[in-house]
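Reopening this one. Same input as before:
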Amino acid sequence: MTDPVGKLPSQLDQLPDRDPEETAEWAASVDAVSEHAGSHRAEYLLRRTLQHAESAGLALPRLLETDYVNSIPTSAEPTVDGDEELESRITAWNRWNAAAMVTRGSKHGVGGHIATFASAAWLYETGFNHFFRGKEGDGSGDQLYIQGHASPGIYARAFLDGRLSEDHLDNFRQEAGGNGLPSYPHPRRLPWLWEFPTVSMGLGPLSAIYQARFNRYLTHRGIKDVSNSHVWAFLGDGEMDEPESTAALALASREGLDNLTFVINCNLQRLDGPVRANFKIVQELEAQFRGAGWNVVKSLWGNAWDELFQLDTTGALVRRIREVPDAQVQTYQTRDAAYIREDFFGKDPALAEMAKLLSDDKIIECFQLSRGGHEPRKVYAAYRAALAHKGAPTVILAQTVKGHTLGDGFASKNANHQMKKLTNDEFKQMRDLLELPIPDSAFVDGVVPYGHPGADSPEVRYLQERRAALGGPAPARRTQPLPALPAPAEKAFTAFDKGSGSQSVATTMAFVRLVKDLMRDKQSGKRWVPIVPDEARTFGMESLFPSLGIYSPKGQTYEPVDRDQLMYYREAKDGQILNEGITEAGSMADFIAAASAYATHGETMIPFYIFYSMFGWQRTADQMWQLGDQLGKGFLIGATAGRTTLTGEGLQHADGHSPVIAATNPAALTYDPAFAYEVATIVKDGLRRMYGETAPGEDSDVFYYLTVYNEPMPQPAKPEGVDEGIVRGLYRFNTAESAGLSVAGDASRTQLLASGTAIHWALKAQRLLAEEWGVAADVWSATSWTELRRDALEADAALLRGEERTPYVRQVLDGVEGPVLAVSDYMRQVPDQIAQWVAQDYTSLGADGFGLSDTRDAARRHFGIDAESIVVAALAQLARRGEVSASSVKEARAKYGL
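Same output, byte for byte:
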């Protein structure tokens, strides 16, 4: 018997076929249909069969693509629960005011985007009228990730419902006066409206996935039941090119996040032109999402197309729609019916016959006006299908026209993203199209008016009634007054006050021990959210696995290989640790969701995310900015920090610059602690500032970045009275005399400022300077170069206002003798942040350049930051001042082999 499934080898050949004759009959049936009715008929029957098998629950692989038609037939669309006429009028007002706001602002040169909301208006309005839950009630509601360029439409709606005034709209993109509207969703700039910053494209979809996942985490851990919250992410088809946009699709499907819906506005255009000029972006996205396990709903065509599809008895129309590239679809938007007849229908005899049955008006309606994303019934049906689908997230691919209703000058034009205004004549055409009662006389001095039907109009009453039924305004950010978290027991913070004696302890391990103790606290312990990107064992956190558990929505469905060990790998549905695998971006998205839970859900959570310091700010600094913009709180821990403490790993792991990047983020408090007791003091103050009682003038909407080291070192006892210096950034650790070194009373003196692990080299240098060169050195711990700089900048600003204020760094160094030499395991730019405010002679040492693989000692000698290099640099400073002989510098270089 011939091979029933074809001539090519098949993976099924290795499996037994219990009835080869039946298999052959099925194959013969397919061949017969292809021969007598055509290949397209055979393809249709096979797709029908697969669809039936799927609905019957058979476990078959799904097709990655379907035809270029709507997923939901018109006959299956649910009835819209609402007044469609009023909703249409509301949308018309919002379209008008969004365009008016941007056009009026263009006179001030501040720009704005019009075309995006014009294409997506019904995607938002349908959600606001029927689906998006507000925060009144459970305090959580739904989470809305609004596409950044659509913000004018959201402002227009807030104006219609009375949350914004004309003055607000006239201050769009003019924030300096304090009454303006930010260009895009910015919680820090408009914290009562926006919840999530989204215009750094790609971060919105990534964050939405992890927000939906974190919602499940809160519910499963018993913190708060937010199972009714749904996450909606509004995205552009061009935005999906960003790698972050699709980075976590598999996570969403793997964990069955049916509390998540992506709505992708497929207007086929990105910023400069078509998204996929020679291809079809909808089909590409469908295959990508289906392959990742998502439910896909396509809403492509409006009702006008129903007649055409009914005429398509041969399948020619569906085939032609699928083969026409997106750029040509865009061209149809701007050409007349004759062109479309020839170019679209003229390619196939069956289509040419169909076209004879269609009027020019019908062709124009279908190809230029009737899109699924522009018809509220289509959008409503898609949203209902998304909420009804269980077991997987849903993506809605809604086809629209960029610049819809803005006139021929905008619709589908490549340049429309950069077009910031309409002329008065174009506005009047838009008014007539939208049937708005705005007279010509309202255009005073050439200025387009805002439109509003009145606070007591049917439109506004309907809008407000719909929102009241759905739980209040949206979008809205609500920060409920939450009680301060009670301070944990002091015992956890004082564990290292006496030092470690002869035992060497890395500050990474000191931090892990501290947090381990804090998570045992009966009141606040459950609020901690440990996040790690598959490096928990590197950071000594495996002891937390059995006690806290690793979060998994499925729990643990297997017996772990190390089950008989004390620190076995335990997954649990109520697990506390988020072990994300090898994804710093995913871990940061976790952190952001947890860090802003106090606003999103009214629940205080304390996330700490520990990572290789090199793979934090360098790799995900954009997300750190997003975290600050979202007013998130928590602790970022850059472990295995510094350029030279991670032996053997080399350039790609050697962090010499993360504090520089961190210093650019106004919300980040950056610390480079040297000792275990400093780590404890900083964490204690961070908990107070972010979650407890803030001091006057303090901003609690901050997050902390601590660098900790994997180099085990003896931990000294905590000196008396250093807490303020630790928190503010600098204190004197010891003097040559208090260190027990023998120096002459008239010895030259120098000041060594060091941060992080560099303080150990400074202490060795202090001893060498005293014992071998007769120089007295004081050693200072600079826990935060960045906070010292910020304090100094604030002092400078105060002086310009006529206030007397001295920078803290100058206060603590006031009157100390000798030059200042600063050293760290980072590039010199880090300690040089304070140089201009140090009254003494100042110089610095740092690990500039690229990292390398070697021993710690060899790497430090290479960069010139080891103890001996510090000695030579200190002697050179003193020699320039004439306090030691110039020959001593040369002698020291020779002595130490430098």
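So the earlier flakiness isn't reproducible anymore. For the record, The chain has a mean pLDDT of 93.
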